[in-house]
Amino acid sequence: MVTRFRSGAKPSRRRDSLVGEEPLEIRVGGTSLAVTMRTPGNDYELAAGFLVSEGVISKATEFGGATYCRGSGNGDANEYNVLDVLLGEGVVPPAPELTRNFYTTSSCGICGKANLGAIGTDPAFGPAAAEPEIDLDVLLALPARLRESQAVFEATGGLHAAALFDAASGEMLVSREDVGRHNAVDKVIGWALMEGMLPLTRCVLQVSGRAGFELVQKAKMAGIPIFSAVSAPSTLAVELAVASEVTLAGFVRGDSLVAYSRPDRIRVSAGTDQRSEAAFGRDERIAVR
Fold first, then answer.
1. Which single residue of 56, 196, 231, 232 has CA 20 to 30 Å from 144?
2. Band of residue 160 on the pLDDT scale cut at 50, 70, 90
3. Whether 113 contacts 102, CB under 8 Å
4. Are 42 and 183 contacting, i.e. CB atoms less than 8 angstroms apart?
5. Same domain, yes or no, for 162 and 87?
């Protein structure tokens, strides 16, 4: 039960729904790699997407499966918070320096990295043979469509979400929710890996919040060419998007957006007033101070 306070009214008591948040320890071949705070569910996808983001795997065959483990004590019950991943045959295990020395919080996808150089992992995929494009009207509609898919957010109001859309048709391929924005992205990338769809060169990644460096990095690692966020990007996110040739769109709300890199992938319908503000070019930078 919670107590609701409202100006000019008496406090009232009612039942409320809360977002689940529990730790997940990700192991690879029995060796602990990271601990992340997440919303339970789709844990296999989360682990697979995390390993894609870390540059450990890039193909469905390289993810050999996963098993929930008991806690450290012999009498501990299996609380499904420890997941051991089996890599495919011939896949090199993560280097010791990849091990996160601290747990990854719900809001951080790079916590525990030893140095800044460790966060710029290069993807296994080369440049896409064809340049994807998306209609402006289709791109502007994606946040609302993502919001419609957020069943748990509807009940709790406390979850981030991410979804993959086909750039040509606008079809939603998958959406996932999580208390951590980076976990939601890992879950959709992990789903795509298991479906054998990587690299995602024909897809748009839509997220429900801001565009941080760690999310753009995950998109880059999965071969996603277009990243769309309802809120603002950071300076480092823009720099990475420019360097990686990722189209980064922020403030995607209502009838407008701001393109911070590769605006040429966004098609404007014929007859649109070309005198409107131009999108930011490839080399533009924005710093909010």
1. 196
2. confident
3. no
4. no
5. no
Task: Name the token pair of 67.
Answer: 């098993």
* pLDDT score at 279: 41
Q: Which domain holds residue 244?
A: 134-267
Instruction: Output the pTM of the full model.
Output: 0.83
pLDDT at residue 15 in the model: 85
Determine how β-strand 2-4 pairs with β-strand 12-14: antiparallel
Residue 288 — left, alpha, or beta (φ > 0 → left; ψ -120 to 50 → alpha)?
beta
Strands of the sheet with 172-178, listed across from one edge: 172-178, 160-166, 203-207, 226-229, 247-253, 256-261
- CATH number of the CATH domain containing 252: 3.40.140.10
The residue from 69, 108, 111, 203 that is catalytic is: 108
Please give the single-letter amino acid code of residue 81. N
| Predicted local confidence at residue 218, as pLDDT | 94
Residues 65 and 160 in one domain: no
CB distance 215 to 230 below 8 Å: no
48 and 111 together in one domain = yes
Same domain, 197 and 263: yes
